Amino acid sequence: MSTKKPIVIKKSRDFGKVMSDTFSLFFQNFKLFAKVFLKIVMPVLVLGSLGVLVVAFMASGFDPVNPDFDEFPMVPAIILGIIYVLFIFLFIYCFLKIMVVAYRFVKLKSEDAEYAVTEGDLLNDIGGETMAMLGKVFQYMALLIPIMVVFGGLQYLLINLIGPSGIILLFIALPILMYFTVATSLYMVVFFHERIGFIDSLKRSMELIKGKWWLTFALTMVISMIANSISSFIQYVPMIFVMIGAALLPEDGSGLSLFISVMGIFAVFIVVLTFVFYIINYIFQSIWYHSLVEDKEGTSIIDKINQIGEDNGEVQFS
Q: What are the CA-CA distances from residue 31 to residues 5, 26, 36, 131, 312 (Å)?
């Protein structure tokens, strides 16, 4: 039986408590997250490894000293391009699955801090929720991209009309864009928990973050940097082996195909698997969402009062 004190999700937190609970929740349940993560990214690993093998095939017989690009195999190159495009789309889809897993986990813990979450709880019927999240991502992109294109066009016109001083628009646009992205940074977790429309999710995120913008910005930056640093540090391991191996290869290129196969697949596995640490970001978003809701609305207190009312047969609050 675990002696770890359960982390209560539905409560207001300061900077230090958000940091502490985010990393505690992740590392206390790392084994569960790792298992679920591996099941989700397995297709990405397989496809990435296939791409490496295609590159290795193309490298067989290739002379790095006197390369002949006219004889470069076109069919494998086309196949590699297709694999690359599929890899990118599959990688994004799997990342959204990981987001749903993290949101589900925190939601279950918010309902019962002592509940032992299982792999089934996190993976059952995950496809539908992931596609819904994908739709929200496309909607957000459809909102931001035209705005960025308009600003870019205006910037170009101003520079051509009044010269380098036209760059002032950039210094006006960037703070506005930064403010908007931070203020709406919780729209995905808002949609997940409250199941409201896209615009309403954006408004709800801005409403929750109002008055907490700088704290949200600071938490997002610090937690993202820590998660990215852990991931990047581990990713350096295969890079070191690749550089050492490349330095030891014969000048005539013999063994190049085998080297690419072994080291390439090793690198793909290490790099992809380190993205498990990005779950930290999604746990933070969920914890911060609940913290802001409690800070502004105190819903857990109302729930407790309602529960007492149910037990005593009294009128409930809403």
A: 18, 9, 9, 26, 42
pLDDT tens digits, 118-164:
999 999 989 889 999 999 999 999 998 888 888 888 877 877 877 77
316 — pLDDT class (breaks 50, 70, 90): very low
Q: What is the pTM of this model?
A: 0.82
Place of tokens 């986990």: 105
**Higher-confidence residue: 132 or 63?**
132
Using alpha carbons, select from 210, 216, 196 the residue that is nearest to residue 136.
Answer: 196
Indicate the domain borders of the chain: 15-135+221-303
CA–CA separation, 318 vs 316, rounded Å?
7
Question: Which residue type sits at 1?
Answer: M
Tens digit of each residue's pLDDT (9 = 90 or more) over 95-123: 999 999 999 999 999 999 889 999 999 99
DSSP one-letter code for 73: -
Which SS3 state, helix, strand or coil, does residue 185 take?
coil
